[in-house]
Amino acid sequence: MCAVIAALAAFSLSTAAQAQTYTPATMSTLQLATVDPNFQFARREESAVLPTVAEADSVAKVNSEPVPTLTSPWWLDDLFSHRSSEVADGQRWQLDDLIWLSIKHSPYVQSILIDPQIQDARALETLGEFDPATFVESIFNDTSDPVGNTLITGTANRLNEHLWENRSGVRGKGMRGGEGEFYQEFLFKDNNSDFFSPRNQADTTMVLRYTQPLMRGAGLAYNRSSYVVATLSASQTRQEAERKLQSHTLTITNAYWNLFAARAQYKQVTRGMQNLVRMREQLAQRSDIDSLRSQLLRADQALATQRANLAAANSQIVAAEAELRAAVAAPQLLGDRRKPILPETIPADFRAVISLQTELGAALNDHPEIQQVREALKSSRVRLQVAEQELRPTLDLVLESYVRGLNGNFDAAKSFGDQFSTGAPSYSAGLSYSRPYRGKAAKGVLQERRLELRRELLQLEQTLLDVGAKVESAVAAVDAAFVALESAVQATLTNLHELEYLKARYENSFLDPTSTSILIDQRLAAEIRLIESENEWVRAQVDHMIAIANLRYETGAILRAFGS
């Protein structure tokens, strides 16, 4: 099996494991073929001593053999070498470091994390109805009413009365539906009736009143339903925030690997152009011997094409860095935009074992969209339970007790004392029953809640199907990306061997002078193909890592892959 490039360990590998260098011993534990020690692709340079035709033929035979695993193509050495000239001016970043910096600094991330807090506050609001409330009331009434009955006032034809009502106490509702009230009342009253006695009355009453629903409106579940529904809504918002956060993580991941690809391709094109320039110079020097004017023109055309590719790679570097800075929004990145961002995470070099059933199980437990629908389903069930209880008749237990004192001359203190020392407490107890005729409103609400629950069940079923399809597609994409990576590795090695073979044939063309012109054309084409295949290799590396990240996103575990 053809191998693949050094890099970021997929799935649940730790950051330390991502950055380690694989030795032949560790590669054997992964059941991977080790790189041929005689083949130093990472160190490939323009050789001063080219192989002979016979040696070139023997190298070409490698193409028919299985391609070994490569752990360090030359551009990885250039990108990650700490001796690079870019290190002094640039900033090296691991992918997971950028992701956690974005969670800390990104305004977008901070905004989506506020939404669940808002919903939590709204859930807390629903508990406000269970908070006991103290109250104080003071009302003064001065009335002058005509009378039509001498038994009201005696001799006076109008009733002139002064009444000052004062109440203070506490009232509240319990979580099981009961409503209670406890207060002390002071009434100061006087009028002109001949029968009013004693004069200047101070009437005091201490009242305890409690009403407990026994059927409709009773129970902890019914009375806490608003809080439970609000809490489930807050949980849905948290799942939505997590979905957005994972999408943001995927955006950073894509930008990071695109930056890696652009920088690698920039180095590949630069090195390829240097080889083309040297070849063009050789052709110009031998223009009087065996090279044709058309071959010089083709070399110039190839150089022009590569200059355009170099400009495109530079543009991609600028775009990827700009996207990373905007997505991460960390001061370390925004402080000096002139400093290049240098990827420090290496792409993966092995084929991870992926089980579709395992990935589907992970998605079932972790995917935010599935969790959202589940919370909505719970909320619909709570509403249905409330609607079912609304069909029940109202049956309330009503209890009340009070003590009372009465004295003249506005002696409120003596009346207050008499409440506890004179007479006995008064009390009342009873039941209150009511039932709507036909109950159309409650039945309509119940039918609505049942339909809502049915809708949520169907949405859950469809979400499971959609997520399952996406996970299955993502698993297939990872496999396809790895196969493409293997193909790109093999194509690059084939082009490399072919180029070395053609160089050897060209340097020994005196053995077959009639083929010199053909060899020049073939060598020029091989140089271009090598640049293109190296570009495709890097693109395949990046596509492989993006496919892995997308699989983690589709299972809802992309943040966990980076250490959450």
Q: What descriptors fit this protein?
A:
564 residues; alpha+beta; Outer membrane efflux proteins (OEP); 2 domains; six-stranded antiparallel sheet; two-stranded parallel ribbon; 56% helix
Radius of gyration, whole Å: 42 Å
Globally, the shape reads elongated
How far from one another are the termini?
34 Å
Low-confidence spans? 1-70
Task: Count every helix, treating DSSP H or I runs of 4 or more residues as helices.
Answer: 16
Give the biggest sheet.
6 strands, antiparallel
According to CATH, the homologous superfamily of the largest domain is: Outer membrane efflux proteins (OEP)
The total strand number stands at 8
Major β-sheet strand ordering: 2-3-4-5-7-8
Give structural notes.
By secondary structure, this protein is α+β, with helices and mostly antiparallel strands. It has helices at residues 15-19, 24-29, 53-60, 74-80, 95-105, 107-126, 150-153, 220-223, 225-285, 293-328, 331-334, 356-366, 368-390, 412-421, 440-507, 516-554, and strands at 91-93, 133-146, 158-173, 179-191, 201-213, 341-343, 394-407, 426-434. The two termini are 34 Å apart. The model is unreliable at 1-70 (pLDDT under 50).
